[in-house]
Amino acid sequence: MLTTFVAKTDSSCVIDGKVYPDLPLLMTNDGILEVQSDYLRELTVMRGLSPASVNEMSKYLRTHVHIMDAGGLSWEQTNEVALRRWRNEQAGENPSNARRGYLNQQLAVIYHFLIWAEKKGRIQGVVGPLSPADQSTFLVPVEIARWHSDGTPAHFKLPLLYRTVGESDRRNATAGQVDELFVALANEQNPYLAERNSLIGRFAENTLMRRHEIAALLASQLPSLGAAKAACSSGEELTISLHITKGMKARETIVDPQLVIDTWTFIEANRAEMLQRRSLPDRSDLPIFLSWRTGGKIHADALTNLFSSKQKQAGVKRASLHNLRSKGATDRVESLIDMYEQTGAPLPDEETLLLQAQELLGHASIATTRTYIRREKKRRADRKRAEHKELTDRSERLRQLDREIAIRQAELARLAKESEVRTRVRD
C-alpha cells in the first residue's frame, strides 16, 4: 500500500520575493506528488487562500490518492465508480446531514483538483466536459450548469455529491442561540478581541455583509460619528458603500446607527491602543478589524474559523458567520412582509415583492432572493396552519366539554327524579 504524508515548507520557501512557510506538500516515500503540490501552491500564492484552509485540502487530496491506491490504480486513473464506492462505504446506511456535508466537502475538493489538472494539461480524459462542444467520454463526468460568455465553465454540478436535507427553519439559529454565540464571542480576556469579535458578528447579522466584505471594511466607508448620532435621534436609515463585494460589484447596505457608533468607539479606543502597543501607524488603507497577532488585515477564512470555534464554545449550531448573515436576511424579509400586513395593504405580486426584497438584501441574483421569500411565506403558512389547528382543536375540546356537561346534567336530572320518586313512595 502506498504511504503518503503531508510535509510543509520552511522559511526558505520564497515565491516572487515573498516567504511562504507552512506551505503544504503532498509526499510519498518515493518523493513529492508534484501535481497535487502545484495545485496547493496555486491556491495559496495565486488565489490567496489561508494556510489553514489549504492544509485541510491537502488532507482530502491525500485521501484521494489512498482511494485509488486501494483499487490498485494511480490517482491519474481516477474514475467515478471508485469514488462512488468510497463515498458509500464512508457514508454507511442513512448518513446524517453532517456526515453527508463532510463527504461532500472532500469530494468537492477532489473534483476541483481534477478539473484544475485537466485544464492545466496535467491529466487528459479524466474529468469533463470542460467545453460546450466536447462530446468525449470521461472517467469522471461532470455537468456544467452554467457557462461564461468565453466558453469556459462558470458553475459545475458534481454528480456524486449528496443532497443534504432538512427543515427550512433549521437554516438559521434561534434568537437564544444567537445570544449564546455573542456571549462566547465576548468571552475573551483581551478587551480588543472581545469587542472586535462581537462587532464582526453584529455586522454580519445587521448589514448582511459577507465575510470578505467585513474583513476589508475601512473606517472611511462608515458614516461619520455625528451622522450616526443624529440618525439615532431621528430614526433615519444609514448606509455603507461596499466596493470589495461578491463579483466586485459596488453596492450599498443598510446599517444600524448604534452599530456605527459602537464601531467608532472601538476604532478610537481598543483598536487605537492595539496599534499603539505595536508601534504601528493607523494607515487609511488598514481595515477596521485587524489580527491581534500581526496587527494586519485578518483573512476571511480566519473569520470563518473564529466563528466555528465560538459556535463549539457556545454549544450551539447553525450560528456561523454565514448563518448570522442568513438570519439577518430572513429578518429583513419578515419585516418587509410585516409592513404590508400591519398596514392592511395586500402583498404585491411575486415579481414586485422579489424586486423589493432583492434591493433590500443586496443580492446580485434574484434566485437567491426568491429562496428567502419562499421560505418566509412557507413559515407564515405553517404558522397560520398551526394557529388554525390550535383554534380547531380548542373548539373541538369546547364542544366535547359541552357534551360532557350536558350528559352530566341529564344524569343529575335523572338521579334527582329517581330520588323524588323514592321519596314519594316512602311517604
TrEMBL record:
UniProt keyword list: DNA integration, DNA recombination, DNA-binding
Tyr recombinase domain location: 168-389
Regions annotated as coiled coil: none
Bias (Basic and acidic residues) ranges: 384-395
Residue ranges, annotated region (Disordered): 376-395
Top-level taxon in the UniProt lineage: Bacteria
Cross-referenced InterPro entries: CB, DNA_brk_join_enz, Integrase-like_cat_sf, Integrase_catalytic, Integrase_recombinase_N
PROSITE patterns named among the record's database cross-references: CB, TYR_RECOMBINASE
Keyword Glycoprotein: no
Gene3D superfamilies: 1.10.150.130, Intergrase catalytic core (1.10.443.10)
Entry protein name: Tyr recombinase domain-containing protein
